């Protein structure tokens, strides 16, 4: 089922704990994070040797006063108007990074859509369904989980919508 590192066996991150508790198949990928790299997501794709279209970043936005998670490919950007529309809102802006960290329990560059301190509405870019597996942050910089997009959508109660821009 899942490959587990020594750290994970001793508890892991809230994201890997949530995946294990749910009985979902996943693989952990770890790499040495380079703080000087300009993009956390592109660094992850390069380090793992995975196409950036299969590595997804977790972004936190404010949609009409409600923090909302968007999971989009690292190869593109978030379409804020599409995100607002996907959750029935009018306007979306990127959330304050400190508020995003405090609310999710993760640090920037390591925010996972899984195991967040407070469960937030989540939108997964529908391009994820084109791949048998995708990679998302496992809850810290340098740690990713690879899993089926359908499992991610189910565990986060995500709406699937075209919220990424190439």
What can be said about this structure in brief?
The protein is an alpha+beta fold and 166 residues long. Helix content is 27%, strand content 28%.
Account of the 3D structure:
Helix content is 27%, strand content 28%. It is α+β, with helices and mostly antiparallel strands and 166 residues long. Strands 5-2-3-6-9 form a 5-stranded mixed sheet. A 3-stranded antiparallel sheet has the order 1-8-7. It has a two-stranded antiparallel ribbon with strand order 4-10. It is globular and about 40 Å long. It starts with 5 loop residues before the first helix and ends with a strand. Residues 1-10 have low confidence and may be disordered.
List the keywords:
three-stranded antiparallel β-sheet; alpha+beta; 6 helices; five-stranded mixed β-sheet; 166 residues; disordered N terminus
SSE diagram, text form:
Layout: H1 6-9, H2 14-22, E1 27-30, H3 40-48, E2 56-63, E3 66-73, E4 77-78, H4 80-86, E5 92-94, H5 97-104, E6 122-125, E7 134-140, E8 143-147, H6 149-156, E9 159-161, E10 164-165
Parallel strand pairs: 3-6, 6-9
Antiparallel strand pairs: 1-8, 2-3, 2-5, 4-10, 7-8
Low-pLDDT parts are: 1-10
Number of strands: 10
**Gyration radius, to the nearest Å?**
15 Å
Structural class: alpha+beta
Rough outline: globular
Average pLDDT works out at: 92
């Amino acid at each position: 089922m899942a490959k587990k590192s020594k750290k994970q066996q001793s508890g892991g991150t809230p994201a890997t704990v949530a995946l294990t508790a749910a009985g979902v198949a996943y693989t952990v990928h770890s790499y040495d994070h380079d703080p000087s790299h300009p993009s956390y997501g592109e660094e992850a794709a390069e380090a793992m040797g995975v196409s950036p279209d299969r590595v997804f970043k977790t972004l936190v936005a404010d949609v009409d006063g409600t923090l909302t998670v968007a999971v989009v490919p690292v190869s593109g950007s978030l379409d804020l108007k599409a995100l607002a529309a996907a959750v029935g809102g009018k306007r979306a802006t990127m959330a304050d990074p400190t508020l995003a960290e405090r609310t999710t329990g993760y640090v920037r560059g390591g925010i996972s859509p899984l195991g967040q301190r407070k469960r937030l509405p989540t939108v997964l870019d529908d391009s994820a369904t084109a791949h048998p597996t995708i990679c998302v942050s496992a809850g810290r910089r340098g740690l990713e989980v690879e899993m089926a997009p359908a499992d991610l959508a189910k565990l986060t109660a995500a709406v699937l919508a075209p919220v990424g821009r190439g």
